[in-house]
Amino acid sequence: MRPVIMEGLVIAMTRVTKYTQGARFLCINDDCPCSSGFHHIRIHAPGATESATVRNDFSCMICSSPLKEDVKFRVLGDKQLVELIDVKALNVLSAHQQNALRYQSVTLFLRDELCNSMRIGQLYRVLGIPAHVHQWPNITWSVEANSIQPWEPEYPHKIGANFQELLKATAGSPWRFSAILAHSFGLGISPPGLYNTLKLCLLLSLVQTRADTKNTFHSLDLLVVTTDTLILDRLMTYSLSLACRGVRHQASGEMFASLSRDEHGAGTANIHAGSALLATGGICMLGDLSCYKKDKLDAIQSALESRTASVFIPGKKYGEDADQQLSFPVQCNFWALTYSTDGSRRSGKADCAVQGTAEMGPVPVQMADAFGLVIQCRNNAGEQALLAQTVHTLKQAVQPGNPLYPSCVELSSQDYQELVAHAQNLQVELSPEAKKIIHGYYMANRRVRSQRQGVKMSVASVKLLISLAEAHCKLCLRTQVQEEDAVIAVLLCENSVTLKHGASALIIPPDAVFPCDLGDVDGLHRRDTTLDDLHQNILRFIYAYAPGADMYITEE
Description:
This protein is an alpha/beta fold. The protein contains 14 helices and 18 strands. It has helices at about 160-170, 175-185, 195-205, 230-240, 275-280, 295-305, 350-355, 365-370, 385-400, 415-425, 430-450, 460-475, 485-500, 520-545, and strands at about 5-15, 15-25, 40-45, 65-85, 105-110, 125-135, 140-150, 220-225, 245-250, 255-260, 270-275, 285-290, 310-315, 325-330, 335-340, 375, 430, 480. Strands 1-4-5-7-6 form a five-stranded mixed β-barrel. A five-stranded parallel β-sheet has the order 9-12-15-8-16, with helices on both faces. Strand 10 and strand 11 form a beta hairpin. The longest helix has 25 residues, at about 520-545. It is elongated. About 35% of the residues are buried.
């Protein structure tokens, strides 16, 4: 048959097993010349099955007597089975609009040097030879792989005219472009001005889903604490539709990997990808964590901390001599919600408002630390925010299709999708000024919190700061991380740590990144002024508490 070429996503694979590359057969008739020597040699051909090489019904070409294999001369090779499917099949597991198409996976046979050349959750282009195996009453169609190459689908890498004009109009401020993006984001879900910090963080997480030039994945996971999970779940679901690869996980489904017996005669374990592995290089949305049992929460926490997922394969069940445990890298960003009550924390702290911490429902502090970035969506406006959301919903019902907010910058979902696809492919580097801010804040924060609160700030905090700064730089369509990007990272990180462990010597408002309303140009100017003041506060904090800060930060 003619070779075929296909592109797709690896959703399952087996362990490496053995197959017969070649075998020698001897005639059972001693008087036949074929009873010795190498007259009957069978070699595996591409697309052929194991039974085509070795079975017990071959007959001699000279005397037609049965042939018997000389096992001493059997040559074995490595074999691995992989399931490949069209990447668009993930739309069924994400928030994209559903369609009537049905996607079917294809089984690939990898042999010898091609074994272990594919990873679960990755995209590949495969050239191979198709093979039909007829086992009554079924016919199996598979492909014998001959060439395997990593593959990435082509996404639009140009931003729309609306963003280009906005970028020119906000060139005078390093903070305004991302602020307007967040302010105008998700207007079909919530009115402008509500949840701006969350909207900004969702955009930052969307653009921070690709590995850098050193193949290092900088994760940016989000844990949202709220009293209204419905609206925020809709907002996160909408954001998931903008990701190049997004998977919404169901609490009853498999998060990392599951096992089944191979159906192609190998008898070994077939490892199926769960939601986190399918979302490699994208977003895995967990939803409300109160729907998960404790063992699932523990598994999620372990994966967040180690960025790996393990699967145990019992050898006795799958025809092996020994048990085996395999590990897979987890390279996706996790989004989760947790319900917050107005009561005091379970640990006995009576006044969360004074301490600065937030009630996180069923989520322990250790798991919140594993997520890294924690965001509390509080309605400071109280009844006014509830009224704004109600009016927004009524407008959508009464005037469907009409612009709800003519005064806001009109940016469509397609515009945001093109922006995310373009921004996440930017390769950025840290400037010396940004490095000083990140390093100084980490050292000062570690000293203050360890001495006064007994909280140990791990190295993961530095990774989170770098990831936030790089993401803000990408979102602003720059290639060098500036000092202002590091300031946004510090403010988001400090708010997150405060929600988990309480306030420190660095006093900042609860919504430090969006301290005022952005309804007009004056609002943007007030925000710039406030962020400049907070920038100075961060420098004073570093100068006062970071060891050796006076070497790179002047007192003035």
